[in-house]
Amino acid sequence: MAKWVGSTPPPFTGTRDGLTVYQLQDGNYYVRMQSSITGKRIKKDRAFKGFRDSSMRLKIAAGIASFVYRQLPVKVFALYREMTGKAILWLKQGLSAEDVREKLTKEYLKPPAETVKPLFKIPLIRQSARLIRRRYGASMLQVCFRHGASMLPLTATPIHPQYGSG
Fold first, then answer.
1. Residue 21 contacts by C-beta under 8 Å, 6 or more apart in sequence?
2. What is the DSSP-derived secondary structure letter of residue 145?
3. Which residue(s) pair with 154 in the sheet?
4. 132 C-beta neighbours (distance < 10 Å), count
5. What ranges do the domains of the chain cover?
C-alpha cells in the first residue's frame, strides 16, 4: 500500500485503470492495486462457500446475543462478545437458533430472587469506587453518586459468574 505524498490530493478517489485510491481517517491518501475479488464472485464462487457460511452464522449469532444482552441489568461489552462467540459455536454444532437463544438466556439471565438481602454494605470511598467501577462499570458508579447513596448493597446473586458480585 503506497502513501500519496504529493502536495495536492490525488485527481480521483475510487478505482481507475487497475488502481484504487482512498483516504483514511488520518487524512492521508493511499494507493493500491485493484483487487481481483468482486462482490459477485464472493456471492457465487464455491471457493467462498465457507466464508459465506461463517458470515451467516455471525449474523444469526449477533442477533441472538443482542437479544439476550439487552435484557441484562448491567452492560459489559466483553460479555456481549463472549455470548456471540458461544452462539456461533453452538450454531456450528448444528443447534437451531431457538435452542441457542434458550441456552444463552438460561446461562446469562438468572431468574430474579424474590427477596434478596444484602450480604454487607460498602461505603463509597475511593477504594470502593474503584471496585464498583471494575465490577459494574462507570455507569453504575455514576448512578450511586448521582442518587446520593452513601452505601451500596452487594447481593448474593451474581449476574454472571465472571462479571457478578459473587
1. 4, 10, 12, 13, 14, 15, 29, 30, 31
2. H
3. 120
4. 22
5. 2-35, 40-108, 120-154
Q: What are phi and psi of 113, to 5 degrees?
A: -75, 145
**103: number of Cβ within 10 Å:** 16
Measure the CA–CA gap between 166 and 158, rounded to whole angstroms.
Answer: 5
33 forms beta bridges with 19
How does residue 35 score in pLDDT terms, banded at 50, 70 and 90?
confident
**Number of alpha helices (DSSP H) and beta strands (DSSP E) in the chain:** 6, 6
> Is it the case that residue 96 has pLDDT exceeding 80?
yes
In this structure, are residues 83 and 108 in contact, taking their beta carbons and an 8 Å threshold?
A: yes
